[in-house]
Design goal:
By secondary structure, the chain is α/β, with parallel strands linked by helices. The chain is built from eleven helices and 14 strands.
């Protein structure tokens, strides 16, 4: 288990991380979210010991993270750090040896992963000859070649096409099942929503929202009602508790202040024609993010 307790980081006079605490259990996927400059990378770097913290405590399985522990950590950095003149095999061996593995083990594991990612033919190719997506696969393999207990993924999906995102997610879920603690950042809320169980949202290095995704959604009382019917939008907008009505290609989304107002909308809808759908949903994580942070998550 990773435990971050009351961690603060100053760069000179600037406070980049402010009294941050969270835990990531074994076999848990944890999202560290926030807009650009919120303090995510700084937090990751403190966890792996690349940066000193100003205050606080970080432990993995109860122990301070020093050299004996870093062999158990895998880190996919945001600024990709591949040695582009090396071949795929040379690169993975280089990092694997740094993590204390012998060459035979690295080669065996590498073959399995290359096969898994359908890129066996690139083993002896130079990294610089690979496409961006394939380079990212190599970076990912490098991060997990030591079979880490803790896996840190800084923007793992950036630049990947949907098929590759799916492949990465599958592997990440498998690692979770094996008990790996996984902590990641992503700007894509729909990815976070798909497989993240717990999260923290940072604003200026400070947590503004934390907990399990389920609880966060439950506690956030605003709801979206999806409706398919012949609607008079202006009438619906006037109902007490209705915040807004959006029309999509599929349906209408009536946004309400809280679940107390569902009945108001239902009563109005009974007067409408051709009603084929009335579905109440929790808001998306992106909506919650925007309401907490005040801006969207787009870069
Ligand atoms: P992004 O999503 O853009 O990667 P982030 O959430 O990872 O952002 P950090 O890179 O941790 O954010 O930066 C947090 C804050 O600390 C930013 O305001 C950044 O400018 C500042 N910062 C980061 N590194 C340094 C440094 N070496 N010296 C001074 N300030 C820094």
């Amino acid at each position: 288990m990773l435990k971050v307790e009351n961690v603060t980081k100053y760069y000179g006079d600037f406070k980049a991380v402010d009294n941050l605490s969270f835990e990531v259990q074994d076999g848990e996927i944890f999202g560290l979210l926030g807009v650009n400059g919120a303090g995510k990378t700084t937090t990751f770097r403190m966890i792996i010991g690349l940066l000193d913290k100003t205050e606080g405590k970080i432990t993995l399985d109860g122990k301070k993270i020093d050299y004996s522990q870093t062999d158990k950590i895998g880190f996919l950095t945001e600024e990709r750090s591949l040695l582009t003149k090396l071949t795929v095999e040379e690169q993975v061996i280089y990092y694997g040896v740094l993590k204390g593995l012998n060459e035979k083990t690295i080669k065996k594991r590498l073959d399995i992963w290359l096969d898994r990612f359908h890129i066996k033919e690139y083993k002896n190719k130079k990294i610089k000859e690979l496409s961006k997506g394939n380079q990212q696969k190599i970076q990912f393999i490098t991060a997990i070649i030591n079979e880490p207990k803790l896996l840190i993924l800084d923007e793992p999906f950036s630049g990947l096409d949907p098929i590759n995102v799916e492949q990465f997610m599958e592997v990440i879920k498998e690692l979770k099942k094996k008990g790996v603690s996984i902590i990641f950042s992503s700007h894509r809320m729909e990815h976070v929503e798909l497989f993240c169980e717990k999260l923290v949202i940072l604003v200026h290095g400070k947590s503004v929202l934390e907990g399990s995704l389920k609880e966060i959604k439950k506690a956030y009382r605003k709801k979206n009602i999806h409706i398919k019917a012949e609607l008079d939008i202006e009438k619906i907008k006037k109902i007490t508790g209705v915040v807004n009505v959006e029309q999509t290609a599929e349906d209408y989304i009536v946004k309400i202040e809280s679940d107390d107002y569902i009945e108001n909308v239902w009563n109005e809808l009974k007067k409408c024609k051709n009603v084929t759908e009335f579905r109440v949903e929790d808001p998306t994580l992106n909506e919650i993010f925007v309401s907490k942070v005040g801006v969207g998550y787009e870069n």
